[in-house]
TrEMBL record:
Pathway listed: Cofactor biosynthesis; coenzyme A biosynthesis; CoA from (R)-pantothenate: step 5/5
Protein name: Dephospho-CoA kinase
GO molecular function, one term: ATP binding
Protein's cellular compartments: Cytoplasm
Lineage: Bacteria, Pseudomonadati, Pseudomonadota, Gammaproteobacteria, Alteromonadales
Originating organism: Psychromonas ingrahamii (strain DSM 17664 / CCUG 51855 / 37)
Similarity remark: Belongs to the CoaE family.
SUPFAM superfamilies per UniProt: P-loop containing nucleoside triphosphate hydrolases
Superkingdom of source: Bacteria
Amino acid sequence: MTLIIGLTGGIGSGKSTVSRFFSELGIQIIDADFLARQVVEKGQPALREIEQHFGHEVLMSGELNRPFLRELIFKNEQEKLWINNLLHPLIRAQIVDQLAKAKGDYVLLEAPLLFENNLDKLTDYDLVVDASPALQVKRACARDGAGEEVIYAIIASQIDRKTRLQKADFIIDNNHLARSALEKIVQQLDTQFRKLKN
């Protein structure tokens, strides 16, 4: 059996960089965000349902207008609930399917909402990449070009930092790490995870 390690962290924590380092070590990454994008691609039934629900403005050149939808659901709890009820079962089914096919000592399930969506029920251990909210906002604004207000709203919609850390089996404190130091930590964790398997 392949060991399943959940990888999560708040927006701007550096989770994607950590994931990339694991990938460079030959570890298979199952990316919940990537699967979430797949289920709403052009021609997918879920995209038609979203269009019927929100109207044509939610599409741009036949594809999902993500910034428009994000603004919409962060201001409206009911709409957020509707979209989650539609998409989460579809995404979870894809994740379960990919985990069943995974090979190697361990596989990483990268999911920003690992705990919020109870995806940790599918994992053996969970790794949290942590950063202070101020640093999260600074990084996310620089990366996404979004306003601070939007980033703070996303942070507020995610599980609180203290609870996330309590649920973690492994933590990377990514507040002031250089890239090389972060890469070294990933290499050490890779060794640990392989030992857990054996």
